Amino acid sequence: MDSRPFKILVTGSRGMLGADVLKSAGGRAGIEMRGVDLAEFDLLDAKAAAAYIRSYGPDAIIHCAAFTNVDAAETRQEEAFKINAMAVRDLAVICAEGSIKLALISTDYVFDGEKRSPYAEYDQPSPINIYGMSKYYAERYVAQVCPRGFIVRTSWLFGANGNNFVKAILKKARSEGELFVVDDQFGSPTYTGDLAKFLIELVQTDKYGIYHATNEGYCSWNEFARVILKLSAMEGVKVNAVSSEAFKRPAVRPKNSRLLKTALHYSGFKGLRPWQEALADYLAEIGEA
Ligand SMILES: NC(=O)c1ccc[n+]([C@@H]2O[C@H](COP(=O)([O-])OP(=O)(O)OC[C@H]3O[C@@H](n4cnc5c(N)ncnc54)[C@H](OP(=O)(O)O)[C@@H]3O)[C@@H](O)[C@H]2O)c1
Which CATH architecture has domain 6-163+189-215+257-273? Predict the structure, then answer.
């Protein structure tokens, strides 16, 4: 019997999702996990990344590192494309050569949001901002280069180790007492702790391909804000509805970010729980409930 542990390397381990992936592995029998971030190697230094990966010898890489500032990507296109797409190509080559599994974390932003119903894994991406385009290229590189590739699209992440919508709403509610939140973009808030558990399970299988993985259920950002305030006993704070048109940002966002989780269920994985339940646990985790 093979007593060697299943070794997982997590990139972006000081980021919001990466930190929870690392945390979720704690105490799991048969798994050894190591996290890397900019301090260990810059993804843009392909040689250093390759040397590090070869010396650690992982069975799988969960690739959480990315250029994640969606608005900044509009003016820093080249940087976003290098980190999100070209560096993923290099990782995919290393993984292909070393028979290493590679799980790329992708996004709902690969879609344009014009579909009237939720997006399936096989729907054609058509990104409307630079960040989404860079992630779509990453997906293509993984699909083209890496035979043991998983592409996991997720959305609207919140987790303890990062700035996110939940923290921003709580901060604004306290400082301004009244909020203006868009009510014409729909998606699924997703707790990084729940997604992390799925990712660890996924990479131990041979069920390669594209997945959508989010907490269950859909809402608008406006509804999300209301539930955050309700669960934090701040429902007295007024939440006004605004349109995306009135709330212009450097990067356009898709209006429909709803994702169907057909591949996840077909492949026998347990779906993630409803987003409201996950949010309640998260608020307790950060001392807000
Ligand atoms: N946040 C969301 O709502 C969301 C939604 C859908 C998909 N995703 C995807 O989910 C993944 C995780 O997102 P997240 O929000 O957890 O990200 P995050 O908190 O921004 O973490 C990303 C990490 O990557 C690191 N990184 C950036 N450039 C790097 C480089 N050149 N070399 C090595 N490391 C580098 C960052 O380091 P520094 O902080 O030092 O730059 C950071 O620690 C990403 O692939 C993202 O595209 C996120």
Answer: 3-Layer(aba) Sandwich (3.40)
